[in-house]
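Obj.: predict assembly geometry.
Materials: sequence records (below).
Method: joint structure prediction, all chains together.
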Amino acid sequence: MIEEIHLLGIYMPAALAWAVLAVILVYLLRAPLHRLPLHRLLWHPSLLELALFVLFWWGLGALADAFLYRWFAS
Amino acid sequence: MLHRQNLLRSAMTLFVILVILGGIYALWLRYQVEPVTRDGKVRADLVPVAADVSGLVTDVRVSDNQPVRKGDILLVIDRPRYQLALDQAVANLASQQAALDQALREDRRNRAMAEAIATEAVEQGRARVDQLRASIGQAVAARNLARFNLDRTFVRAPVDGTVANMSLQPGVYLTAGKPALALVYGKSMRVEGYFEETKLPAIRVGDPASIYLMGVADEIQGHVQSIAGGVEDRERAGADGQLANVNPSFTWVRLAQRIPVRITIDKIPPQVRMIPGQTATVIVHPRKDGRSVHRSLPW
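Observations (raw C-alpha cells):
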C-alpha cells in the first residue's frame, strides 16, 4: 500500500495526492459531461461530479497500489 | 410522460448518491481502518557507560560511531594514580606482616618464660598478635580493592554496540558514576509503530508486519512482538496517594491516542541500514485466524 508520496523533500499522505489528481481529472471531465443531457437524468447534475471525484479518489489509490508500487516507492 | 421522467431522475439521483456513499465508505476503510501507521520509529536501547573510578581520562581508545564488542576497552582512566594506590596498599600489607612477625616472636618468648613474666604482659602480647592478624585482614582487603580499582581504570564495553555521540577527549576529569558515553545496543534494534487506538483491535501479537523506512523502497519484514501495556492518561494529573485531578474538558474534536506496538525485525534486506530514530511506515497484516473485530462505524 502506498502510504506517502514525497515531493521536494516533503512527505505527504498518498491520499492527499490521489485527491488532488481526482479533482483535476473531474475538472477535465466537466465539459464533456455537461454536453450530455444530464439534467434530464439527475436532479442535480453536479452530484455526478461528486460521485466521480469519490470514485476517482478511491480508484486511483487502488490502481496505484496494484500497479505503481515499485515505480513510486523507489 | 413528465411523471415517468421525474421517477427516472429520482432513481438516478438516488443511485448516484449511493455511489458517493459507497465510495466514501471504501475510502474510509482504506485510509482509516487498515492497520497502517506512518508514525513509526526505529528504536534501540541505549547503554550509558560510566567510569567506576574517578580520575583524568588518559587514553580514549574508541572514536565516535565505532562498533565495539563486549569487553573492549573504551577508555583508560589515570592508571599511574591507581598503580600508586596499589603499591601503597602492598607496602602497607608488608609493614603489617613485619609487625605481626615481631609480635609472634615476642609472644612465643613470653610463653616460653611464663614463670618469669607477669600474666598481664603475656595476655597483652597475645592480644597484640590478634590485633595485628585482624589488621592484616584489613590490609589484604585494601590491597585487593586497590587492585580491583586499578583493573577498573579500563572502562570496558558492557555490550556489543556502537559508540554514539561521543566527544570525550583525553584530559577530561570523570567522576565515578557519571556517564561518559553511550553505546547503542545493536541487538535490541526494533521498530515501534504508534498506532491509533482505533486501529488496534485488528492487531494481535504475532501478526506479520512490513516496515518501510522513509525514502527506502525495500521491505523490512517483522512481526508484532508485543503491544504496550499502557499509555499515560493525559486528562488526569496528581500522584498516587492524592486525590484525582481530572482536567475539565469539553471536546468537540477528539483525537485517537497512539499506542506503541513493538515490531521485532525478522529480515533486513542486505543494502538497508537501520539507524535508531529513523522514521518508518508500519503495515500490519492481520492473519486470517477467525478473529472477529467489532469496529464501530465512523459515528
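Conclusions so far: The interface with chain B takes residues 1, 3-4, 6, 11, 13, 15, 40-44, 47-48, 50-51, 54-55, 57-58, 61-62, 70, 73-74 of chain A (CB under 8 Å).
To do: check interface contacts against the pulldown list.
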